[in-house]
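Purpose: get a first structural picture of the assembly so the mutagenesis plan has something to point at.
Setup: two entries, given in the order below. No constraints added.
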Amino acid sequence: MNILISGGRVIDPAQSLDQITDLYISQGEICAIGAAPEGFHADEVINADGQIVCPGLIDLCTTLREPGQTRKGTIASETAAAAAGGITTLVVTPDTSPIVETAAVAELIQDRAADIGFARVLPMGALTQGLQGEQLAPLHGLASSGCIAFTNLRRPFGNSQILLRCLEYAATHDLLVVFQAQDEALAANGCMHDDTTSTRLGLNGIPEAAETIEVSRCLLLVEQTGVRAHFGQLSCERSVRMIEAARERGLQVSADVAIQNLLLTDESVNGFNSAYHVQPPLRSQLDRAGLRQGLVTGTISAICSDHQPHDPIAKQAPFAATEPGMSGLETLLPLSLQLVEQQLLELPQLIESLTIAPALILGLDAGTLEVGSQADICVFDPAAEWTVSEESLRSAGKNTPFLGQTLKGQVKATLMDGRIVFRR
Amino acid sequence: MFEANDPNSIQLTADGQLRHFLTTEGLPRELLIEILDTADSFVDMGEQQVKKVPLLRGKTVANLFFENSTRTLSTFELAAKRLSADVLNLNINTSSTKKGETLKDTLMTLQAMHSDMFVVRHADSGAAHFIAQHVTPNVAVINAGDGRHAHPTQAMLDMLTIRRHKGEFAPLKVAIVGDILHSRVARSQIHALRTLGVHEIRVIAPKTLLPRHIEALGVKVYTEMASGLRDVDVIMMLRLQKERMQSALLPSEAEFYKLYGLNRDKLAYAKPDAVVMHPGPINRGVEIESEVADGPRSLILDQVTNGIAVRMAVMSKAMSGQLSQRAATDNASREA
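Result (structure tokens, whole complex):
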């Protein structure tokens, strides 16, 4: 099928492209930009006048609830949400049930996603068996089965020796390790940032040191082992500075941040609204400023959704007793556009952090509109307003604090492999 | 960028009357004074032959205690009965892992019994807010202690006790001593004392028992008693739980008592007419010496008496706020 996306502002940071032009798609690939290839006949035309055309977004952290917790979301419901959010590639966490620690589970997830066909799903494998931090998971085998990276999430390692060995083994096979840095003892029982708001509300705090101590330990061991490493969902200004310093020393480490940590602070927890219960926690204004600065300087190169859909019951309890996490696939783009509105980033810079930057972190051949690349494309209207509601969200998880808010920026069409997987 | 929720939007009616009592934080000074004035009128009632007023006649008060407390439960029960309410006491076990479901289901069940007021104690901070958000508009919620967050009736009975002994709040220096970190009482006291305009609020504790940035609540922080108690008018002791020894917060009860236990020597740092308070139950020889607890400057038993009066005041005020809101809603729907 041949598709023409006409008249849009095509922004592809990977090739420094930003111009109003036409995009031609054939056989699942981008076959031309600007002038039609000879003999091209469009079966379908997407009129993108006044809209932005960019590579499909790549989300570095999504929690899929299938297999195991399908009452919170299924591969079908969440990949449909991704498509509606302009996201064509999802990197998903290994904490399904069963855990992604065998080839069978890794393949099941990819096969099911492929059958459904709304988005590419790239599983992260467990770094240790059962995510228990004691024994190595079969990293090489999992990588052969399509695991793009390996992580222990926020679960602790038994000790530093085990962590060191995990990194050495991953380095042996040139595998990417993703850290969600948190010292378990310091974070114990905490449910929000440890500061004046937690003190007022009487909620157990997670101190900044819970993240920074673990970032520091991981950086030292990354340096020693030379493993490819990425820090996911940073929340502290000091973590950004430590990673910046490590990069200046020549260490090849990357980092991302969840969009909510760029927009919100711990003060949102006032009133005990469990929609703001997230891990890592929303932190102080200083932390938020540090994360935003890290994004500007490039220490943090990618923005992710940290999407965690929940059933309503999971959020209906006193704050600390609720499950952490926000549903975020469909709000990732409009919320990120607020960073442009706030003049923190130029639009191409923002799109870079959602497309080619995460692709580079993963070592993935994606995130660009270059001729010959797979046609994963997002078309959105940056000015269109829509109201976040339980009805307007395709995700099974309605657990977003933005319910009822009107956001600017709406996806009009999403293409994956040259197929239209979403159109509004 | 996004507005924080104002706690008062939930506990006050549109015209500023109390309809739930969840926290002392942010309540207007006039309202706190009104509560104290109303409570004052109830204090002496306990000594009369007939100890009842009909303010809550025909109403049902359900005491929902998800955390055991015989004392607090008893004072709420007595307060409700003296207001002529029907009282239902429920001790609810929270050990089940699905607390949230249990809590919401419990609420639905109790609502179906047409209770007019829930008095709630729960181990989770924010539980009273959660309940107030999820009950029908016809139920008033009184927070009888939620996690480390708030214990507003305790704070108000402390304020009443202070006012009855000291008169004005403005000139007073008040010290709160002990386990500030885990104390909902301390937090509610601090908010109330600030709103009532005392001259100075101090907290005295080792750093392991002080929450992060407590000074942001408007208190001066001291880590030892000699300077912390100097020239204070009121000493408010807090209860210390035994389990604090197990998590490296304190080495031993003996060391805590030596450094922070209120004995006659340390009491001498305060003003000669300083009064001593404690929310009870007291640990003699841990937080306080018997001679001080039972001495002439101790107001500990007055606090208990005043506690019933304050709870009567808060319950009657919240019920009248609730009823006026019901009337307003009824009128509005009739006009529509």
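Residues 208-225 of chain A form the longest helix (18 residues).
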